[in-house]
Amino acid sequence: MSKKNDDNRYSNWIQNCWHHFCLRPKENSSEYSHSTTIDNNHKNTRFVSQAGKEIVTRESNFDGLLHDPVEENITSILHVNENFISSKDYTELMRITSPFHITVETLAHLMTTMEKHCQMGLEPNTKSSSDLKMLPTYVTNLPTRKEQGDILALDLGGTNFRTLLVKLHPNNEPQVISEAHIVPDSKKLLANDLFEFIVDVLKQFMIRNQLDLEQEYVLGFTFSFACEQIALNKGKFLTPSKGWVLSDLIGQDVVQVLQRIIYQKQLKVKITALINDTVGTLMACAYHENTCRVGVILGTGTNACYFEDINKIHTISDRAVLPTEATEMIINTEWGALGEGGCLDMLITNFDREIDRISNNPGIHIFEKLISGMYMGRLAAEVLASLINQGIILKTQRDHKQSYRYYGPFHALYMLQTSHISEIELDTGHTISNNPGIHIFEKLISGMYMGRLAAEVLASLINQGIILKTQRDHKQSYRYYGPFHALYMLQTSHISEIELDTGHTFANTRNVLKKLGLDYATNTDCAIISYTCRLISRRAAMLTAAAIAVLMKRLHENKQVAMKKICIGIDGSLYRFHPRFNMVIQRHLKILAPVLLNYELRISADGSGIGAAICAITANDARQALRKGEIQKSSFYQQHNRIP
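^ that's the sequence the OP posted. Answer follows.
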C-alpha cells in the first residue's frame, strides 16, 4: 500500500472517530456536559458548561482541524474589539500561530510514518534506514511480586542522578531509600570522569545507609541514553542527548566501563541489569498492574517502550541468551529520534526549525524537540518573540521597534554598554537596530551601538568555544530578545503555571511575567501569551497521543499478547506537573486508539529506580537458578560416570 493511501486510511479513521466522539456525551465529565441543539440542516452542536454557559458552537461538518471545546475556551477572551485585540492584530496572531493547529492529515501522517519506521527498525535489512532504533532490551518477563532482597539502583537521566536502595518483599510494596544528586556540567563531557563521580557518590550512599561494604550487592542501572544491547547486562552506547557529550563512551559497553570503575573503588557491587528509563517505568508499573505493556517518559526528554512479539523482532543478536519460554520482549523505540531523516517535515514549523538550529544537536531528536519539556519553554519564547516583533504584545514595554535575539545563558551580554568597553579599555555582525540601512557611519563609531557590537562579537567567540567555556553547559547558538531577553528564561514549568489560569484575570500568567521582569503586561498581552502557551502544549500532547496509539495498535495486533485491556505506565515531569497534558492525551487516545482495546494511563511512581531494581534481582535470580541447574547437571553426570 502506498504512503498516500496509508495516510488516507488513517485520515478517514480519525475523521469518523472524531465525528462519533464529538457528537456523544463525554462520560463522567466534570468539565462540561454535552447538549445538542440541531438546526434544520443537522449541522450544529453546542457544548454547554455545567453552569449552563455555552462554551463553543461547533459545526459537525469536519473541516480537517481537530477542535477541542474545552481546550479552545481560551479563544473566547480574544475579543476583536477596542478593549481587547484589534482585528489587525488578531489576524496576524492567527497567521503566526496557525502552524501549531493540528489537522487530521497531520496526525494521519505521523501515525503512518511511525508505524512504518517501527517495522523497518525491527528488520536487519531496513534497520539502518529507520529513524526509530527499536532496540531489543532482553527484558522478556514481567514482575511476579515474589521478588525479594535489598537491591541497589542507579538512575542517570536528563536532570538528576539518583542513588537508590530498594527493599523488595513478596506481595508487599517496595521500600525505597533515594537520594538525588546534581551532576556538574564538567562531568557531562567524559564518561570516565562521570562514572568515577557516580561510584564515589554510590559508596558514600552505602555508608550513610549502613550497608555492609563486605557484602555483595546486585545493582540495576537505569541509563537514559540510547544503547544497543546484546544482553540484559551488556549495552553499547550509541548517541548522547539532553546536552550531554560523553564522546569517549560512544561504541563502548556501558556496563563494562562502569563495572571496571566499581571494582577499582573496591566495591562488591555487581551490575546485573542495564535498562532505559522507559523500561524501568514499564516494569515498575507492571509490579502493581500486570496488564502494563507500554512505558512512556514525558519529561526533560521523551521516549517509549512496549512489548513486541518476539517472532517479529529480527534484530536480536543472540537468541541463545533468551529464556526458552520467552514469547515477547520489551522494545526501546527511542521515538525522540523520529524525523531525523525528514519524515516529519510536513508538521515542523519555522519556529521548530529555529529551536533545532540553536540546539546543541541540530538535526537530531526532532520528535523530542516537538513534545518534550526541555524545548517547550524555548519554543514558546520563540513564538512570543515573533509576536513582540509584530507589535502584537508587550507594546507598552517596547522602547522602539527591534528584532529580538538571545545569547542563551549569556543573555546578560545584552547589557554590555559602551561604558563597559571604556572600563575594559583601561585594563590594557550585524547590528540589530531600529533603523536598518540608516545612519551607517554613526553605527560604526557612536557610543549608542558600540556596546551592542561588542556583544555580537563576544557571542560569536562563545559559539566558537573560545571564551566562557567553563560556563557553557553545551554548544548552542546565542541570541537575545533586546529588552525582553528575560523571555529566554521562560521554562516549561512556567508554561504549566500559565496553563492553570481558568478565568480572564490571568493571575498565573501575570505572576510568571513578573518573575521574568515584565511587570506591565496588559490583559490582552496575558490573553495572547496564555493562548500561545496552550496552543504549543496542546500540539505536543496531541502528537504524543498519536505516537502512543501506534504502539497500542501494534499490541492489539500482537497474537502473543491477545489482551483486551492494557495499562500504559507514564512518568516524567511534563506529564506529572503540566495541568492539561494528561487531559489532552486522554481525549485524543479515545479517538486514535484501537476501538476494541481498553486502556488505562497510570503514573508509574519512581519507575527508574524500582524498575531497575526489579530487573536486577530478576536477572540475578535467573543467573543463580542457571548456575544451580548447571551444578545439579554436573553432579548427575559425575554420579553416572558420563561426560556432559
